Amino acid sequence: MTPWTSRSGTGAPLVLCHGGPGIWDYFDDVAGFFDDTATVIRWDQRGCGRSPRDGPYTVARFVADLDDLGDRPRFDVLGHSWGALLALLYALEHPGRVNRIVYVSGVGIDPEHTWKPTYRRNFAARVDPRWYELEDGRERAILQWSTDFVDPATAREHAERMATPWHGLNPECADALNAEVGRYLERGDLPARCRGLTVPTLIVDGRHDLRPRDAVDSLERALPDVRRVSLDAGHVPWVEEPAGFRRTVREFLADSAR
């Protein structure tokens, strides 16, 4: 499978891993934050967006796909939400390939039952009730993604921008990966594996994310070389706090390169 990719800028490679799973790259703004100092590589993951809808939809296959993107021996990787976990799992499998990890709005390494009920309550309190009545599609996605932003006056505008252009969802991919990740986290071995990971890591949270941020505490405790920054934002911090996000990540990538 040859995924859809986009490259911009010059410098050391920085690979961006979008969330989902089952959607597509939405990192237009983020790429612009770094393309004066890095070769920014964006991609639509297997079965998502502009990439072929080819399985298998497994964590191992997605880790292998990410490995295929790096055109140099080592690169930086920034992942958001599901993509943050993918970046972490990739570094655990291939620590010699990763210079630095930027872990944005992930949900940690604890079993999902420790945080998902809280997220579902928070989501139900914020989502437009029409979400429950709609079939899968663009409008339903916009209503769901609107909950990821703090200010209701601008939330829909931000969500519509993420949904434009619309590349369609892949529920088969989402269901398969979410189920596997749930089983993976139940095994409980990730904290021990993370304690052995010496790759410098930056955790970026939006303090108003509907997903409880204390779910990430055990990951922060486990990583030997970690920084953590909370911004005044929801689940997509570079949209609501672009200056703070850009400064935080650029400083981390520059400092940890010394």
TrEMBL record:
Keyword Hydrolase (UniProt): yes
Alphabetized UniProt keyword annotations: Hydrolase
Family: Belongs to the peptidase S33 family.
Biological source species: Cryptosporangium japonicum
Keyword Hydrolase: yes
Cross-referenced InterPro entries: AB_hydrolase_1, AB_hydrolase_fold, AB_hydrolase_sf, Peptidase_S33
GO function term, MF aspect, one: hydrolase activity
Protein's name according to its UniProt entry: Alpha/beta hydrolase
Domain AB hydrolase-1: 13-237
